[in-house]
Each structure stands twice: as C-alpha cells, then as structure tokens.
Amino acid sequence: AQKITQTQPGMFVQEKEAVTLDCTYDTSDQSYGLFWYKQPSSGEMIFLIYQGSYDEQNATEGRYSLNFQKARKSANLVISASQLGDSAMYFCAMREPLTNNAGNMLTFGGGTRLMVKP
Amino acid sequence: DSGVTQTPKHLITATGQRVTLRCSPRSGDLSVYWYQQSLDQGLQFLIQYYNGEERAKGNILERFSAQQFPDLHSELNLSSLELGDSALYFCASSARTGWSNEQFFGPGTRLTVL
Fold first, then answer.
1. Measured between alpha carbons, how far is A84 from A101 in angstroms, rounded to an integer?
2. What is the largest distance, in Å, between two alpha-carbon atoms of chain A?
3. b/e per residue A69-107 (b: at least 16 CB within 10 A)
4. Terminus of chain A with fewer CB atoms < 10 Å: N or C?
5. Out of A44, A52, A104, closest to residue B105 by CB
6. pLDDT in single tens digits along all 118 residues of chain A
7. Number of residue pairs across A and B with CB atoms under 8 Å?
8. Cα separation of B66 and B63, whole Å?
C-alpha cells in the first residue's frame, strides 16, 4: 500500500506568488516524522523542512512552511514568494520508527514537479 | 553542499558487470543510508548502516550488497548488472538513528547499464 501520496505530478506558479504542494500519508504509528526534499534538475536532494508527529506548531524554514493536519494525515508544503530557482521536483517523505527503533528509512512520495513562471 | 560525498558521479558499464559505489558521510554522522531513484520505481530505500552495523533493509536485491567501514564510509556493491539497474543511487547520512533526525543526501551516482 502506498504510504505517501503526492497527487500533483506537475504545477505551475507565477513568480512571487505562493504555492501549496500536497502530501498525504498513511501510518498507524503515533510517532513519525515528515520531511520535504527538493530535487533540482542537477539531481541532488536538498532537505527543506521537517515536521514531527507530536509537534504542535507547524514547521517553518524561511519561505517554506508545512501545513500539518494530523487528523487528515496531510503535510502540505507551502512556498511563499516563489522564485525562479524554486523550479524543481519536490518530494514528501515519511519516517516511521521500526518496532525496535533499529532503522529510520524514509518512504518517499512520487514527487511534484514545480515550474515557476517569470 | 550537504557534506556527503559520493564517487563516482557517473558510471557506465555493461550488463553482467560488477560496480562499487562509494559514500563518505558528513563528519560525525554515524548512520548511512542508500537509496535508488529510477523512473519506474521512484525513490526507494535500499539499506541502512549505523556505526558499521546493518540496521535496516529495504527493497535491496540479493545481487546488491553494502558495508560500512570503521572510518564510517560506505560502499554499495552491485553485481550481475541488468539494464533495469540503471538509476541514480543516493547515499544519505544522519547523526543518529533517532527518527527525528533529517537525512542529508549526497549528490548521487548515476549508473547506466548498457
């Protein structure tokens, strides 16, 4: 079963406007972490923002914020004041603790390609 | 720059061959993770090592193996290569195994199997 779903394969946004990238997840654990990564055309994976399942406040990092709705199991990324350099693939990922906390792999969604128009 | 280094950046080889991908984690990070990114499978976790020991295994084929050395660098060995093994292979590292720690990714090794 797919654990991370990103329903928007591609999106356009006008430069300087805000954009929301959707992410829903599925887990039966109470403790988990949610991450967003950016992958520009050069290929590297850049960590953007993290939200813990017990965090009461939505995470923010500069122009990035995470709209965390635990009951809906959604963790949408909001990018404010889009810039041309924001054009990239964006991946939502989840970490669930294994039963003995031995490993911490990330499960990724399929990604959303964001294109910022000048 | 994440601080994670991977070599080589590109690798072109033939079916049936064996290759080794190398990763050096960020200074002080004890955990190393390997991921495969392909067009049909997306980004998939392969295996994790923590301070030299295997900690978690994902969708890693039996033809693939990995290890983490005492200096904490890691190598991913891919053998009997098939066309479908062509992918971008990422190494990531984190400070501990705690589930709240973010993973920092290296630039990746792009493997092309002809």
1. 40
2. 49
3. eeeeebbbbbbeebeeebbbbbbbbbbbbbeeeebbbbb
4. N
5. A44
6. 559 999 999 999 999 999 999 999 998 888 889 999 999 999 999 999 999 999 989 999 999 999 999 999 999 999 999 999 999 999 999 987 665 555 678 999 999 999 999 9
7. 72
8. 10
CB contact B40 to A (< 8 Å): no
Residues B38 and B86: beta-carbon distance below 8 Å: yes
Q: Does A105 touch chain B (CB under 8 A)?
A: yes
CB contact under 8 A, A33 and B110: no
The pair of structure tokens assigned to B22 is 């190398």
Measured in angstroms, the CA of B23 and the nearest CA of chain A are apart by 14
The C-alpha atoms of residue B97 and residue A54 are separated, in whole angstroms, by 18
Strand B74-78 and strand B87-94: pairing?
A: unpaired
Q: For B58, which of A52, A95, A105 is closest by C-beta distance?
A: A105
Whether the upstream peptide bond of residue A97 has omega within 30° of 0, thus cis, is: no
Per DSSP (E only), the strands in chain B are: 5-7, 10-13, 19-24, 31-38, 42-50, 53-57, 64-68, 74-78, 87-94, 104-105, 109-113
Q: Give the containing element (helix H, strand E) for A21.
A: strand A19-21
A-chain residues near B101 (CB < 8 A) = 104
Shortest CA distance to B109 belongs to which of B16, B20, B28?
Answer: B20
